[in-house]
């Protein structure tokens, strides 16, 4: 037995140090919940996980874009439906005025004028984030993917909706005073002509509703697709980055036992030279 160099002690110290390193790694993973806490743990895996996390954040913004687009369209649809209801009432008034038995053309024209002014008010005040929605000035593009191409495949484009009185053919607005002039239903002939104009207005409103509905459907599908992609990306990132807690706990317990055993064996290895010393006494 040699006493100048305690090889057993050195071997035990080396193994104990390795066990300590592994135990520290187990503690880090258990405390953070991540398998990869630094690049040295898995450089390639860290790169992939970071790219997935970046894509997830971009997709989350795309989902918010779709939600904002849906909110805009819901406002536009609600106002358009209101205008449709007003035009339906205007058709009732015009049909009544076109009847040979109608004698209250003044009262009918007064209500018709009021309804025309209400359409103008709705078109002039229906907004989303200070953007008028129904006067033909609104155009919008919503990015609903994270590909970065920013082309037709990534964008949902909202077509302009114009329900102004001039476009619907239901009256005029003075550019200076803002005064609204409605179509006439003062007599039988005017009421008949106005009924035809109202039919055209109904067609224009229905076309606007169809455009809004198509955009809503596309945004809904885009939103669902984005949310599904986010879930899949998050699952992929978790597989790469997150720690298997059950496995880490098992490894931690094993390394803890090895550390305790190594400490005990180190004490035994360091005590061996003392036996030689007692032999020399």
Molecular structure report:
This protein is mainly alpha-helical and 281 residues long. The protein has two domains: 7-33 and 243-280; 61-241, f41 fragment of flagellin, N-terminal domain, CATH 1.20.1330.10. Helix content is 70%, strand content 6%. It has six helices and six strands, in the order αααββββαββαα. The chain has helices at 7-32, 43-97, 105-125, 165-168, 188-241, 245-280; strands at 127-128, 131-132, 140-143, 155-158, 171-173, 180-182. The strands form three sheets. It has a two-stranded antiparallel sheet. A two-stranded antiparallel ribbon has the order 3-4. A two-stranded antiparallel sheet has the order 5-6. The chain is rod-shaped. The two termini are 16 Å apart. The model has no long low-confidence stretch (mean pLDDT 86).
Note the run of SSEs as H and E: HHHEEEEHEEHH
The class by helix and strand makeup works out as mainly alpha
How many H/I helices?
A: 6
Query: What is the radius of gyration computed over CA atoms, rounded to a whole number of angstroms?
Result: 39 Å
Tally of strands: 6
Can you tell me the CATH class of the largest domain? Mainly Alpha
Write down the domain tally. 2
The residue-averaged pLDDT reads: 86
Helix content: 55-70%
Give the topology.
Blueprint: H1 7-32, H2 43-97, H3 105-125, E1 127-128, E2 131-132, E3 140-143, E4 155-158, H4 165-168, E5 171-173, E6 180-182, H5 188-241, H6 245-280
Antiparallel strand pairs: 1-2, 3-4, 5-6
Helix pairs in contact: 1-6, 2-3, 2-5
